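Hi all, long-time lurker, first post. I run a small reading group and we've been trying to get comfortable going from sequence to structure in the token notation. Rather than ask abstract questions, I figured I'd post a concrete chain and ask someone more experienced to write out its structure so we can walk through it together at our next meeting. Sequence below, copied exactly:
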Amino acid sequence: MRKSLLIPLFVLLTASMLLAACGTATTPTPMVETQVQTQLVEITATPGPAMPTPLPAGSVQITAAGATFPLPIYTQWTYAYQYVDPSVVINYNGVGSGAGKTAIIQNTVDFAGSDSLLSAQNYTDGKDLQMYPMVAGAVVLIYNIKWNAPASGTGPTPTPATIPTLVLNRQTLVDIYNAKVTMWNDPEIVATNPGLANLLPAAKITAVHRSDGSGTTEIFTRALTSFSSSWTAGGAQSVQWPVDKAGNGIGGKGNAGVAAAVINTPNSIGYVEIAYAKANSLTFAQMINQSGATVTANGDSVNAAMAEFANTFTPQLTNIIVDGKTAGVWPITGYTYIILHTTSMTDCTKAQKIVEFLKWAQTDPSAQKAAATLGYSVLPDAVRQTVLAKLSQVTCNGGTPVAP
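-- Answer (accepted) --
Happy to help. Here is the structure in token form:
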């Protein structure tokens, strides 16, 4: 005797979200659109091992924390995954890369998110940590300029709906955060924006930066370090900002905190992950990259950066992809990573669920589409396959393989 059972294979879900201000993660109020695909599977009713009893809904609680750079996509992924595996609830708290690395080393979370690379000491303290790139994204410069009114007959006054696009070169960006260029009508800015010369105000620039230990800051300051030898503050998750010493710097916690500070501070500029700019409809500057080309931050320019640095991954699966030399590259680009204990997790059910979730995020078409919609770039196939192979090596409870 044979029975035909109709089995739902998966649920594809896209959830839109609201971003938190001041670096605190919030639960999105999503508009949910679902598509259900089914497949008829023939199961022969012959004697055999009993099928395992499904875990009760929400019975596996997974806690995670770290980078705010990937917070928009992690929020969507963790929300959607409840429909894929109802037994799992994943809570990701965007507290910054520095706090995330500390939490995974101290075993207060099940996994961490970071755009900042682990140091040699972090690997020693964490004993069995591994970084896995999840997506790549652009760090962009958002601004809030109080433009001059145009001369009579030369055009309308800029409004929020018609904000001019600023163009910055690499040296000028360094000079702004070095407090060397301090006015919006500085000749350096006018030189790359000749069409805006009469609109740029004689107003002091307020430079906004992260106040917390941040992988976004590490990506940004590594780029500044590459842009010019005059940037001497270093490339790290926390630096001593020259603009603070000069009195025209402001700190904000999290990407959302920086975005909020720029929105609320006239004549300011700040760096955020592109998803925050897009979600808040904030205009961001174009950049003149190392090749001399003027580029916009988008999927193509981030993909170009990944392609240029495709052969420079470390054994820890980390890679620095700032300041590429090819024409299409966005110069302030980075991977964001999940950090996981690879041998010391004692709860094998939880370990398996974490690995299954991460593999789903890398292979499910709807998960990958959600990342691209938010402005992230998904991993090239060769990198994805390396990540999946590494995830398959995770063990728990004294060497028990997690992956089937």
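A couple of things your group might point at:
The domain at 2-42+57-136+334-401 is CATH 3.40.190.10 (D-Maltodextrin-Binding Protein; domain 2).
Residues 1-48 have pLDDT under 50 and may be disordered.
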